[in-house]
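INTERNAL TRANSFER SHEET
From: sequence group
To: structure group
Subject: Cell division topological specificity factor

Please process the attached sequence and return the structure record in the designated field. Keep the field labels unchanged so the import script can parse them.
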Amino acid sequence: MSFLSFFLGTPKKSALLAKDRLKIILAQERSEGSIDYLPQLQKELIEVISKYIKVNPEDIKVNLERDGSLDILEVKIEMNQIK
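Return from structure group:
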């Protein structure tokens, strides 16, 4: 241990600094992120589901929730008949 490192402390490694910065950036993007794509996602889900199941588009509900750092996509479908 050199005399200067005793007073200045040991510097953090650049990889650890980069990792910490990336975590901060990702957390900010998640908290500021919007769900503008949800209507388009719902439309595309209806198209795909309609290929296999006879369903009224109003019977498909799509919901996106955030629980801490976890994003939850919930799709509820009321199925009447299989094609």
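Handover comment: The two ends are 75 Å apart (CA to CA). Residues 18-79 form a domain with the Cell Cycle; Chain A fold (CATH 3.30.1070.10).
Transfer complete.
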